[in-house]
Amino acid sequence: MNINDNANVSNANADNVKHKTHFLDLKIPLGCLIVFYGIVLVVYGLLADQAIYQKSLNININVIWGASMLVIGAVLLFLAVISSLQRKKQALMQ
Amino acid sequence: MHLNFVDYIIIAAYLAVTVLIGYLLRRRIVTSEDFFLSGRSLPIWITGLAFLTANLGALEMIGMVANSAKYGIATVHYYWIGAIPAMIFLGIFMMPFYYGTRIRSVPGYLKLRYNEATRSLNAISFAVMTILMSGISMYAMALLFRMLLGWTLTESILLSAGIVCIYVFWGGLTSSIYNEVIQFFLIWLGLLPIVFLGLKDVGGFAGLMQRVPDSFMHLWQNLGTSTANPMGIEWIGVVMGLGFVLSFGYWTTDFLVIQHALASKNLNTAQKTPIVAAFPKILVPIIAILPGLIAIAVLPEFGAAAKQVAANGALATSGASPDYNSALFLLIAHYLPDGILGLAITGLLASFMSGMAGNVTAFNTVWTYDIYASHIKKNMPDTHYLRVGKITTFVGVILSIGTAYIVQSFPNLMDYMQLIFSFFSAPLFATFLLGMFWRGATPWGGFWGLLIGISTAVVHYILYKLHIVHYGSDMGANFYQATWAWLANFISTIIISKFTAPKDVSELEGLVYGLSSKKAEAAISFCARPAVWGSAALLVVVILNILFW
Q1: Do B42 and A1 touch (CB under 8 A)?
Q2: Which of A63, B88, B129, B435 is the least buried, fewest Cβ under 10 Å from its Cβ?
Q3: DSSP state string for B303-358
Q4: What is the residue-level pLDDT of chain B in tens, covering all 549 positions?
């Protein structure tokens, strides 16, 4: 288990390993989670009792923030789609 | 504070996603390098954000808000002085030695550059330190659950420990890193609303300046003497102790942090990782420091304490001092209705869990490679070490649970953390600095220097606790302790190196500045160079320090 073995192992498996661990594109679960939160907050913000917003200076912070999160989540998912198209293009070119 | 079903849905969704990611990764973890170093395959946006977030755990959230409620805006020094320069230095100057040598851990470098004794000393002290740190994360989370749900320490510790254990067991460092990136998003999404609402409430930053005592709102103006500012420390303590020794000691040698960069897919990515992380780091004070100031402006007990400190100096003791660690929770309860409340709680939960996970993966790696594989069972096939790593996940989590109970005896989490760092990180930094930039550092010089450095910190601590030496505050004592420990290591390493046998120059190839084959950095365009971005970050920091003088 000396350092030279380490270096050889890394180089030899580099290509296979790269594809394996990077294959899970984090933008997808992350984007989905944020979109989900956005939906939950907007729906709750519209339907629930409005009196709770006294704390937040009478601003319906759930709806506003929920809507922002929908946008952020959508952007992430969009980027994930682009990455996946790029990956397919690279795979075809090889 | 009362959570309703919407809040619980939000929390549950997050927990489900972390476990899901671990589950999706489990088949892909085949070699020990997959488990401990993500197979060295991750892209820059992930390593950069995770690098930043690894350090954005329990400590930051509770501790920094507590500190800014107690000491004022000068707490920002932990970021702009206490992190950015060190991060830049790491990326530009030290990463080539860490990544280029294909070492698997920070102690691994010490074995190559110095000797096995030095590596083992570092490995053992790091293992201890990282488990203590993991305990802080657990404890802080237990505080959160107790305040919200009335859960006992044990119940909340077991829940969080259980989940972290599962996803680290399945996915190793990759799980840890992916969850940190998720945490990055959640912590901003969860805590920004408080900042927006708080600033709106007090009338913007100008309104904040009116409501908070003046000595709490300046970065450098009052640091001439230790009595003139709430921190009880003068500028040289900040610059040398925090800015140089503690900050560089942490950012350039702490394996939890370095491990994230080692997971990069190539050297350029590894170099840019801390630099990419530096930019959002500059902004973190928005959610870590501003809330503390808002707490002073808006919550009566903190405002009263601040006025007293401003009038009587840093060690004013008349009247019970407020529980600063609860400042953030109180602000959350003050401003956030259900729904977004769940999001804030999830952000905090995420930061505690990733703090723990980061420490467990670092402990795992150092134990398996630097202690187990080097001393206990050498030359076994790789699958054996992978199994050992997985089992150590459980052991690490259990030990962390134990240290969580130790944390209870320290009222200020930040001071406790800095104390640990002054023992272990600060002296270590001298060993690395000399090792990487001075050929003359010899193996035994390195070992004895490190041992002397750590001992100096211990002796200094004893002297301080026995009131033989005095400082303006605990924080000041930590800063000076770190400086003395570093200095002792630095000087003794140089002296002892003069009297002991050095390594052959051929053995130092690629390990020391000036002895590496210069790879073509000219091939990278100007805009992609780490040095360019690093300088930009430093420039921003200088400007900010002037603005908030």
Answers
A1: no
A2: A63
A3: HHHHHHHHHH-TT--SSPPP-GGGHHHHHHHHHPPTTHHHHHHHHHHHHHHHHHHH
A4: 678 899 999 999 999 999 998 888 888 888 888 888 888 888 888 899 998 887 777 667 788 888 888 888 888 877 787 788 889 989 888 888 888 888 888 888 898 889 898 899 899 988 988 888 888 878 877 877 777 777 787 888 888 888 888 988 888 888 889 889 999 999 999 999 999 999 998 888 888 888 888 777 777 776 666 666 666 666 766 666 666 777 888 888 888 888 888 888 888 888 899 999 999 998 988 988 899 999 988 888 888 888 877 777 655 555 567 788 788 888 998 999 989 999 998 988 888 888 888 888 889 999 998 888 888 888 888 888 888 888 999 998 999 888 888 777 766 666 677 777 778 888 888 998 898 888 888 888 889 999 999 999 889 888 888 888 787 677 777 788 888 888 999 999 999 988 888 888 777 877 888 776 555 454 566 667 788 888 888 888 888 888 877
Euclidean distance between the first and final Cα of chain B, in Å?
A: 38
The verdict on pTM exceeding 0.90 is no
Task: State both tokens at B74.
Answer: 């000068």
Cβ B41–A21 below 8 Å, yes or no? Answer: yes
**Number of A:B CB contacts under 8 A?**
130
Asked if A61 and B197 come within 8 Å (Cβ–Cβ), the reply is: yes
- Residue B384 and residue B32: Cα distance in Å, rounded? 9
Q: Which residues of A touch B181 (CB under 8 A)?
A: 26, 30
Query: B378 and A45: CB-CB below 8 Å?
Result: no
Q: What are phi and psi of B264, to 5 degrees?
A: -70, 160
Closest of B289, B315, B243, B227 to residue B68, by C-alpha: B289
Rg (CA), chain A: 22
> Amino acid identity of B546?
I
Best residue of B30, B41, B105 to probe chain A, by most A CBs closer than 10 Å: B41
